Amino acid sequence: MRTLGDKVNNFFTLGFLVQNYDHEPIYLTNIADRAKLYGIKCVMFKPEDVQFESLVAKGKTFNPFRKAWESDYFPLPPFIYDRCFYRNGIDFEKTKKLVKQLKKYGHILFLNYGLPDKWSLYCVLKNTNIKPFLPDTYLVRNSEEVAAYVKQNKCCILKPVTGAGGTGIVAVFYYKEQFLLKYIIQNKQKVRIFFQHNNMKQFMNHLLKKNAYLLQPLLPLRNKKNEPFDIRIFIQKNFIGNWVIQGIGVRVGEKNTFVSNLAKGAKVLSFNKWLKKKHLTLQDKIVKDMKQMINTLLPILDEHYSPLFEIGLDIGFDPKKEKLWILDINSKPGRKIVLQTNPSLETQLYDAPLLYAQYLFNLKLRKDGTI
């Protein structure tokens, strides 16, 4: 495996594309500090501070001697690590448009082009071999579709087409001709009961005006304590462009809630400890199915969305059917679950984008015929 002790003869600039300079200061600063061992210079800039006419950006350059970021103007870097987290709204659309414009320049390589919205991604994946791992998913157009589904199936879950961290998710139940909705506001679960369809319709239409939603069955992804849980797999590409699993953890949400995101108060358990509590036959089945899922999914993502550097794969496990489901795929995953389950990987996570950027740099040199 490549180590930092290997001789480095190549020098280039890696840029961090951010929406604000305070979002991930520790993570990006530690990467920049490690970069000097690779002969890599690091800069940081916002999409709106790019001067597209001159291909110059106003931003910050990391000073390895002072270990600090300094205001600077610099040419657009040849390699970019996109750390913008998009949300709905005017700023979202403006930032997304600027980043899309940056990606048109052939001399600039993004470590991660990212993934499309959840509906677009589902439309691609449902026509591949990964479909058996996908819950049935529908694009919601109006409240009548939601009402009709829950009247027949008793419950469902609604997820925003764009978004992350569990924000905006709504669980809908139908019981004794009543609609019960559970949703999260400011990290607290709220409950609304509607005795008439018209009242629920008004609430739902207001929700759909703010964002497009997907409808999925509310899968029984709970443990014996009635706590929701899922499995997060953090995967990155290494110094030769191969996918490697950096860490796996189990996220457990609060009792009687319906999400297990860390941002919503979930706790993290070791995957191995969780797995060992299952009987041996089930352990083997979970590991086998997980390997099949990952080995099927990753080539599909590479085929449709390359270049990709990292993903967070969220998996649900149905204890009754002993079945795995793909719940979400995030191209800008957090690292908290890896660090909480294995803190010794911290330095390795700082090195990973540098190693992959160097891999892309060497590929570019070969393609250009300079080495």
TrEMBL record:
InterPro entries xrefs: YheC/D
Superkingdom per UniProt: Bacteria
This protein's name: Glutathione synthase/RimK-type ligase-like ATP-grasp enzyme
Species annotation: Aeribacillus alveayuensis
